[in-house]
Amino acid sequence: MSISRPVASYALGCRGGVPPPPAYNAIEGSGGDGTPPLRNDHSVAFRPALPSRYIIAPVDKQLHNCYNTPMTIITSSPEETEALGRDLAAKMRPGTVLAFSGDLGAGKTTLIRGIARGLGVSVPVTSPTYTIVNEYDAGTLPLVHFDMYRPGSADELFEIGWEDYLARPGIIAVEWSENIGEAFGPDTIYIQIEKAGEQSRKITITGGF
Q1: Do the strands 71-75 and 97-101 form a parallel or antiparallel pair, or are they unpaired?
Q2: pLDDT, tens digit (0-9, with 9 covering 90-100), for 191-201
Q3: Sequence-distant (≥ 6) Cβ neighbours of residue 204 within 8 angstroms
Q4: CATH class, range 70-209
Q5: Helix (H) or strand (E) holding 165
Q6: Short-list 121, 116, 114, 179, CA closest to 153
Q7: DSSP label at residue 63
């Protein structure tokens, strides 16, 4: 799995004129502070399935929620996609809204399943295509999983209490978010998943990780 983001535009969207950091620091997933070499394109291996994995973190932690430049991650299997979700879950805070887009079979539910596992949800996680919403309350944070494939507009989302869900201190994950774009606020994290091969996926994240 690989991850990359242009350093020069790292701080786009920040308030207060905070300049972008000169480079990335990498922190070891097990809690260490080892720093692997950066490539010329400022990317570094991101391998959440391995015990000694490395996870990208900003040099200046004040920038944690400031950048809006897309981050691109390539996974090579459904297992890696789910493992990525587990690692992303560790970075989420109450009130996080995730807007997923991608074709049928791209891996949206797989990534959300990984997020659920990272939050401590052990029950099966499936896409609520017909029920529109599934709720999982057994984890460290509540997870509300929407599927907006069938509804024709955001009106149906508001009819089932979208604003009430936003007021809860949990994580909201919405598949087929492109069908209800007007429902999302400025702090939404957008996750686009594309097929990059039979098993590999290109995952583009825009927002506050």
Answers
A1: unpaired
A2: 999 999 999 99
A3: 70, 71, 72, 73, 191, 192, 193, 194
A4: alpha beta
A5: helix 162-166
A6: 179
A7: G
Query: Can you list the positions of beta strands (E) in 21-81?
Result: 24-28, 44-45, 54-58, 71-75
Indicate yes or no: pTM above 0.90.
Answer: no
Q: What is the pLDDT of residues 84-142, one digit of tens each?
A: 999 999 989 999 999 999 999 999 999 999 999 999 999 999 999 888 999 999 889 99
Domain range summary for the chain, segments of one domain joined by +: 1-67, 70-209
Instruction: Tell me the three state secondary structure of residue 45.
Output: strand
Grouping H, G, I as helix, E, B as strand and the rest as coil, residue 151 is coil
CA dist., res. 175 & res. 76, Å (int): 21
Residue 185: CB atoms within 10 A of its CB come to: 7
CA angle 188, 173, 207 (to 5 degrees): 25
What is the spatial distance between Cα 74 and Cα 200, in angstroms, rounded to a whole number?
7
pLDDT of residue 130: 87
Q: Determine the angle formed by the axes of helices 108-118 and 78-89, rounding to 10 degrees.
A: 40
Percentage above 90 pLDDT, the chain: 53
Report d(CA 156, CA 23) in Å as an integer. Answer: 44
Question: Does the pLDDT value for residue 171 go beyond 60?
Answer: yes
Range in 4-18, 76-90, 185-199 with the lowest mean pLDDT: 4-18
- Residue 11 carries which DSSP code? T
